[in-house]
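User: Hey, quick favor. My workstation is busy. Could you predict this chain's structure for me?
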Amino acid sequence: MISLFALSTLPSLMAFAFVSSITPGPNNLMLMASGANFGYRRTLPHMMGVAIGFTAMVALVGLGLMQLFDAFPVLHRVLTVASVAYLLWLAWKIANAAPPDTVSATTRPFTFLQAAAFQWVNPKAWTMALTAITLYAADRSLAAIILIALTFGAVNLPCISTWVLMGTQIRRLLSSRTRLRVFNGAMALLLVGSLVPTLMT
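Assistant: No problem, here it is.
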């Protein structure tokens, strides 16, 4: 049964989930870039992979992965280095994305599974999950962890959908290859910039 404490903190948890989900980060920047390059419909698997993948990640972090990091702090550092390297590679891919009318067979939006797997190398996702469990499930009770995961699942999806929609609206302005290249370059730089908080910790 969900404790009275967990229920009393639900408004605060929802506010935390909203602010952390709607603000810029690797997921949102990549979704906006995907919306601009591929459109809303083709970005749906990517979007659902983020929402469901992150919800599962929060649950798994609360159910045991936090304890693993507490016991072996070096694992968190290894994860951070791998995450930064992977995001730098993704930034390069975004900056060099081909225009929609010349997209090759190997250029396509993230699949559901790719987006879900990406959560595990996303520094912001790790920060969100670890902070949420620390603040709202200090006792690590199963009920509290499930409440946090479900809250993030409900709040996260409309937030990330907003970023995809922004990308589709921007797409109308990217009719020329030059503007699209500038946009993709800007998204790549912002993605790299989103790593600054991770590098400063």
